[in-house]
Amino acid sequence: MSRLIGLDVGSKRIGIAVSDELGILATPHGMIARRSYNRDGEAIARLIQELTAVRVIVGHPIGLAGQSTRQTEATETFARMLADRVPVPIELWDERHTSTAAREIVGSSPEVRRSGRIDAVAAAIILQSYLDNHPELRSAQHPRPRGEPGW
User: Fold this and answer.
1) Domain CATH for 123
2) For the whole model, what pTM was predicted?
3) pLDDT per residue as tens digits for the range 96-117
4) CA 17 from chain center: how many Å?
5) What is the pLDDT of residue 56?
6) Range of 38's domain?
7) CB of 75 within 8 A of CB of 34?
8) Which CA distances in Å does 78 have to 32, 34, 44, 113?
9) How large is the average pLDDT for residues 5-13?
10) What is the C-alpha R_g of the chain?
């Protein structure tokens, strides 16, 4: 399996995470300051090419009760724009509670927020959740030899 990219799309920043080549571990990879659909799409397309990524997972900000919010609609619009501009599949993945979890990991001081660390860690949480829920991606690309235990 090649790498997957995870995105936490906000109104000011896009947090980025990347999986290892085996599709086991997601790690924060930085952030992109939002500019425009064209510039954001170009930056993500370059990242896909540099990392030879095969899929992009976009955090889907569904409301806690499962309802659509203004941010849900903005993210869906962003994902559709991205799907028109990049050569790999784009998939939405539930991101409820990821920003809260990211703030618990890295803190929430003004400098941490401005640095984009919260956004990148939130993207890693989104991508790790996706990887954990899709183990078939690993086994389909790297089958175990017969008789080798699955762990």
Assistant:
1) 3.30.420.140
2) 0.84
3) 767 777 677 777 776 766 677 8
4) 6
5) 98
6) 4-140
7) no
8) 14, 11, 12, 22
9) 95
10) 16
